[in-house]
TrEMBL record:
Source organism (scientific name): Arcicella gelida
UniProt KW keywords: Hydrolase, Signal
Keyword rRNA-binding found: no
Protein name: Alpha/beta hydrolase
UniProt keyword Hydrolase present: yes
Signal sequence interval, chain numbering: 1-20
Ranges for domain AB hydrolase-1: 59-289
Gene3D superfamilies for the chain: alpha/beta hydrolase
Superkingdom of the source species: Bacteria
InterPro entries noted in UniProt: AB_hydrolase, AB_hydrolase_1, AB_hydrolase_fold
Length: 305
């Protein structure tokens, strides 16, 4: 009995310490370059995530792009939102430090996203989603629409949208180009290849290296293949009826997106009943990164109204 009593005390103390650490990670004066990585379990998966900013009842969840780990979030955007709202980024199943095998479909990734949000104890969230993250977010709206209050969809498109299934070829093409030129493929995939676009690409990629310690695990090749297949399949599926979703939606993109054609942003803006649209000039897939100084106040205004 004495041993059981002591064991119970130790467990309670451990739980209290963990809760205190999680609280500190949320409330301390961190930046995205310094905020610690935490873990939470859901559906047998141990999700890696980073959480910080102004704590409130409804956090902002960031859904990232193809093969993105925690270190692929733009610190300028994350820090700016954190000044006004709690923001949480996370690794998808089988990506970075999150355990498990990569999801087989966009719908699978949406189910994981819902499980992750519930594991953190939230009943409603706002979402900022970029590229593939936007595909996942739309599936979340279909599966559990009451979970999402507001959503920002950047550099993304609707299920079945023309050109989405072509992402596979473009991605592999620019990966090989990156290997031959010793550049990150995002230099080509996200930005126009003119003087302005190249300068924006260098700036963005430099920002992603600001975190010097406790960086995330690199993404493996098999995960890239799985995610590209999921995107291709999603691009060939039947279009979703976006008119049934009445939540506020802010859609943003560059005017020359090679990965997810810019006209799909216009298409979504027409199909969502409560949407606003911003197209940034002379920019590509990473328009919100190239124009982050303009995007940030627009996004914050949208999220805090």
């Amino acid at each position: 009995m004495k041993n059981i009593f002591l064991l119970s005390i130790l467990m309670i103390l451990k739980m209290a310490t963990t809760n205190a650490q999680n609280s500190n990670a949320t409330n301390a004066n961190y930046t995205y370059a310094t905020v610690p990585t935490q873990f939470v379990e859901a559906n047998g998966i141990k999700f890696a995530y980073r959480s910080y900013g102004k704590k409130g009842d409804i956090p902002v969840i960031y859904f990232n792009h193809l093969t993105a780990n925690l270190d692929n979030c733009d610190p300028r955007i994350m820090d700016a939102i954190a000044a006004h709202r709690q923001i949480i980024s996370f690794d998808y199943r089988g990506i970075g430090a999150t355990t498990g095998k990569q999801g087989e479909s966009i719908a699978d990734m949406a189910k994981d996203g819902i499980a992750f949000i519930h594991a953190l104890g939230y009943k409603q969230v706002d979402i900022v989603a970029f590229s593939m993250g936007g595909f996942i977010t739309q599936e979340i709206l279909l599966l559990e629409p009451q979970l999402v209050r507001k959503v920002i969809l950047a550099g993304t498109g609707p299920r079945g949208g023309a050109g989405i299934s072509d992402v596979v070829g473009k991605t592999y093409g620019d990966i090989f180009k990156g290997l031959f030129t010793f550049r990150d493929p995002k230099f080509y995939l996200f930005f126009n290849q003119d003087k302005i676009g190249k300068a924006a690409a260098k700036d963005f990629l430099h920002r992603l290296k600001e975190r010097k310690e406790n960086r995330d695990k690199k993404v493996k090749l098999y995960a890239l293949k799985k995610q590209l297949k999921a995107i291709k399949d999603w691009g060939n599926e039947k279009p979703m009826d976006l008119s049934v979703f009445n939540l506020p939606v802010f859609i943003a993109n560059g005017d020359a997106d090679r990965m997810v054609p810019s006209q799909l942003s216009n298409d979504m803006a027409k199909r969502f009943p409560n949407a606003q649209l911003k197209i940034y000039p002379n920019s590509g897939h990473g328009g919100i990164f190239q124009y982050h100084e303009e995007f940030i106040p627009q996004a914050i205004d949208f999220l805090i109204k």
